[in-house]
Specification:
This protein is α/β, with parallel strands linked by helices and 329 residues long. It contains 13 helices and 13 strands.
Length: 329
Amino acid sequence: MKKILAMLMALAMLVACVGCGDAAQNDDPKLPQGGGDKDTFTVGICQLVSHEALDAATKGFKDVLTEEFGDKVKFIEGNGAGENNTCVTIVNDFVSKDVDLIMANATGALQAAANTTLEIPILGTSITEYGVALELKDFNGTVGGNISGTSDLAPLTEQAAMIVELCPNAKKVGLLYCSAEPNSLYQVQVIEQEMAAKNIETKRFTFSDTNDVAAVTEAAANWSDAIYAPTDNKVADCTETIDSIVRPKKVPIIAGEEGICRGCGIVTLSISYEDLGRKTGEMAVKILKGESDISEMPVEYAAAPVKKYNKAICDELGITPPEGYVAIS
């Protein structure tokens, strides 16, 4: 009897050890998150601020995942209201809830996610230049690690050409943007080089938050023959204020994206942010299904941008866009 009891106890201990080994393996934080054989997924979405472009990107992203997984995908959404520190809080919550993937919409959200987790896959969207946003040296198109995503960069040389095309008499071009957005500075630097090559003077007019927008825009409108506003989330969030200042002074704004153009600009060379979000969603599907390794996924770009114009403002300023421009609906 004692021998039988000893054998049973030994067998029980062996089974328990095997179970412990499986549990330890499943809890390993280095295992890929959210891929392969999972039936349900939780995706965290951190959006820096609400405005037309970013809202459209989030919509496109969610639509693709819902079309693929239906009610088997759950979204946890947080909006930073324009504050990077709030994005950090949001992403920390995602990490504590062990989400399968994080979508970071705009630069501040991406930076918050990148600084918070090295394990959970992170897809950025509405990011102009990943090398600038993440301070990467010799960025070659693939971030590596747990980060990839999509870029909203439109051809800046073509945007510069639009300034000359629509405002041929402009000798001074003001550059209006938020100093807290590194990708805005990147765009401005390219435009400065393009304007210098055409012997057009430029001057930067920067604001740090929404409280400074009116005063800085007033200064820009008083100095400039035309203004260039890059793809910039703070500018996009303040188009009503900007328009109320520049339009009475009849100073045209060439915008980096459609949402800004709709609010205060005359023309833009812009992508579809909903399409950009959908492309990001397609990348997410491949990651969640275990079909792609995010560390090897290059940053992707939207389809060819389209020249668009704001008919109401163009009419008021007496500007007639040449052929090839499409009115913003």
